[in-house]
Every structure is written in structure tokens, then in C-alpha cells.
Design a protein that fits this description.
alpha+beta, FAD/NAD(P)-binding domain, 4 strands, 2 helices
Length: 64
């Protein structure tokens, strides 16, 4: 879904607790998928511990 929203023009960030996306898959496959999604405009924050999400100035902000 993140890739879809990014392609439609939304600023899209994926926040993950794992060190990499698709952490149960082959690391090389994970890297390929991440690279393509980044080319499509998706931003990734990995190894994050999300504390909260809040709405600020009409947008959502998150804190790690």
C-alpha cells in the first residue's frame, strides 16, 4: 500500500521495528524491493521504536 500511495503523490513513510523490510525473506530480495519502493518515493525508517503518532499542522507526525 505504501508504494501505491507514493505513486499517487502522497508523502509515504514506512516505520518498522525490524532492521530491514521483509525481514523473513531473503536479504537480497528485501534489498531489491526496498530500492524499488524508494525509487517510487517511499521513505523507510527501520529499527524504530514508535512512541506515538500525533496530528500537527494538518499532517501526522511520529516520534521514535
Amino acid at each position: 500500500m505504501a508504494q501505491c500511495f507514493a505513486r499517487f503523490g502522497s508523502r509515504t513513510t514506512v516505520v518498522s521495528r525490524s532492521e530491514r523490510i521483509m525481514d523473513k525473506e531473503d536479504p537480497a530480495a528485501s534489498a531489491i524491493v526496498r530500492a524499488q519502493m524508494e525509487r517510487d518515493g517511499v521513505t523507510f525508517v527501520t529499527a524504530a521504536e514508535l512512541q506515538r503518532v500525533e496530528k500537527a499542522a494538518g499532517a501526522h507526525a511520529w516520534r521514535t
